[in-house]
Model the fold of this input.
Amino acid sequence: MPDSNKDNEPIILSKAVVNTATYLGINKAQLAHILGISASTVGRLYTNDYILSPAKREWNSAVLLVRLFRSLDSIIGGVSDDASKWLVSENKAFGGEKPIDLLESTEGLLRVVTYLDTSCTI
Done:
């Protein structure tokens, strides 16, 4: 018997990524860079005409982005404006760089997620 939750994971993650980007104020061009897909593919993602694939690099980046959202949301207490402001503000923990600028590389995305995960446990 197939696991229906497992079958739905790509749809769930695809919707979560769109919701995360909207909540954090990440525009479609930025999301395309973060996921490593084209802007037109992101457009199709927003209209549910494209579903993220677990077999592609986009999957890992999408999982990390949603994880970033969950950690940041728990720190700021669900205030969308504060989350988007944090992303675009220079941060001493990142050598004065803005977290949003780090998200376009896998290493940068992981660095931001690790920082937030560590901050949640303090």
Summary: The first helix runs from residue 4 to 24. The chain is about 70% helix and 0% strand.
